[in-house]
Task: structure prediction
Amino acid sequence: MKKIFVKIGEMKYGETPDILVTMGLGSCVGVAIYDVRKKRGALLHFLLPENTRDDDNPFKYGNPGIRETLKFLVNRGSIKSDLEAKIVGGSVMFAQLLKNPDSAIGKRNIEIARKILEQEGVSITGEDVGGDYGRSMEFNLESGEVRVTSYKAGEKVI
Amino acid sequence: MRLKDLNKLHLDGIKEAANIGSGHAATALSQMMGKSIMVSVPEVKVLKLEEVPYIFGEKTPVVAAVLTNFFGDITGRNLLVFPEDKARLLVDILLAKNPGETVGFGEMEISSLKEIANIVSSSYLSAISEFLGIMVLPSVPSFTLDDLAAVLTSVYLQFTDEDDREYAFCVETSFYFTEEAVKLEGYLLMIPDKMGLERMLKSLGLL
Result:
């Protein structure tokens, strides 16, 4: 078993028995895509909803980051209907200082993740999103489980 | 102006203003706490957005963080950060408890840390205002206790201009209390918005 660390704005691939790890999700969203048949998958840690300025790193953005992640797995032989997603993060910190907390980046990141996954026909089988606190996630590629830890809300498995 | 085009002259000018700000902030904090404080020379940082979680280094511990917006002639925010264990020691001093007595962060503890942030931010900004001949006011402070990486990325992503998110800018100052048995340090980040940064550079005659 090896732990593979996914930094902010990155996507990484792993196979059983690897564990994909990403830390410090605040308003960012982590998307774990699991191939239930081949027991492998990828983890994306994106920062912002849309790439509006031709940034050359797609993985900083929900769109196209999620589509690129799915494409990556399909190019490696996964069948799209075998893929499932879990999404984590998208919190809103310091909400009292935001002019418009309803359109906070965290919320928009969650929305874009749900939207793109729906458009791509990949079902979301687990979520731990929102709130006002940071999270870390460990994506177990043997079981497909995602362990979410946070300083404020403790630990849970989705 | 683009952040990555800032030259050494620009950065030195901002550093000079920040130096005056942090000097005043340290004096105010020192008087409030009745303790002497050493303050570092400010560091001006321009980094890629992906590097934001690691402004203070690779490790991202749990921190007590207080964010204050500022507005007026320049807009932006100040983030005051203490490692969690150091924040507890600070509260011990402020509430005249024995070292180690503070275990968690209830209303009293949070409000004393916000008060510290208020003093630090206000004195920092008023010194900068005076130096640059502009008006800047701080907002009410907002507190969180969380993973440093989550705090830093949230601060940058939630508040900075949508169209300028390739690079991140901040002025970092660290300080510590000199008489404590355990090193008690804190960090202040000043994060002006792009317009605010331009206004500061104009006031300095650099733009």
About this structure: Chain A has a mean pLDDT of 94. The first strand of chain A starts at residue 3 and ends at 5.
